[in-house]
Amino acid sequence: MTVEPAVLDIQGVTVEVHGRPLVENVSLRAAPGEMVGLVGPNGAGKSTLLRTVYRALRPTSGRVLLDGDDVRRLPGKRLARRLSAVLQEATGDFELTAYDVVAMGRTPHKRAFAGDDAADRAVILSALAELDAVSLAQAPFDRLSGGEKQRVLIARALAQQAGTMVLDEPTNHLDLRHQLDTLQLVRRLGVTALVALHDLNLAAAFCDRVCVLSEGRTVATGPPGEVLTAELLAAVYRVKAEVTPHPGTGIPRITPLTGLHRATGISFRA
User: Domain ABC transporter, which positions (predicted)?
Assistant: First the structure.
């Protein structure tokens, strides 16, 4: 798959709902082909920030740029050729096969009401194969397991052939093998990727940089080895953990030592 990865530039984004800030003045830049992980506790603002990037939410202030173009000013079809999204919600209350769902990813590349041609079908089948989901092609999407649905939705984003991807917990529901396969695939594609992850060990293993959010604000951004420290985990997650380099790869390995750690008294809010 040939893609043109973009510079993704989040500039001072704030999102408020009913006067309550869910994200506050977050700035983040992902270089072409870079994989950046969004990490933080539940409620930190990861999904809200991603929804703002793919235009499901309008920022109260700030903006999101793709190669300098404001995503809110791009026509929908043009944006869909450049940016794809994999969401947590896998709604399945419709009578479509897994193949049909993946085929939706071809819509931005076709005229209205145009059917799939041979090239489209080749892309769709290739995307299913990349996610080990060819055997699911004719299965009703709403009868798939959570993990199977997740693989099909990632295949749909892959079929879109966009150079930038945002993924909200893409490893959710997946078994260990498919977690690793999925993140390895994203890296292999060479796209610019912004990925929300709960598993810090996966973030450390696959992301070039991580951005830690807490209470809607940026705590730290940088290479996993520099950011994911025992001190940060105690302050942000309130857990004691040991962070050591893996003896074979040198990748930071996070091992929780105890339960809640309430002794920090640290807040990252101004």
Answer: 8-240
CA distances 210 to 21, 71, 103, Å, are 22, 23, 32
The residues that bridge with 66 in the sheet, in sequence order, are 8, 69
pLDDT digit string (tens) for 122-158? 999 999 999 999 999 999 999 999 999 999 999 999 9
Tokens linked to 142: 């709403």
Helix (H) or strand (E) holding 69: strand 69-70
Supply the DSSP symbol for 256: E
Q: What tokens were used for 46?
A: 């990861």
Question: Residue 201 corresponds to which tokens in the numbers above?
Answer: 């060990």
User: How many C-beta atoms surround the C-beta of residue 269 within 10 A?
Assistant: 9
* Spatial separation of the C-alpha atoms in residues 24 and 7, rounded to whole Å: 22
Helices 146-159 & 118-130 angle (0-180, nearest 10): 140
Where along the chain do its domains lie? 8-260
Q: Which CATH number fits domain 8-260: 1.10.3720.10, 3.40.50.300, 3.30.450.40, 3.30.70.1130?
A: 3.40.50.300
Using an 8 Å Cβ cutoff, are 53 and 87 in contact? no
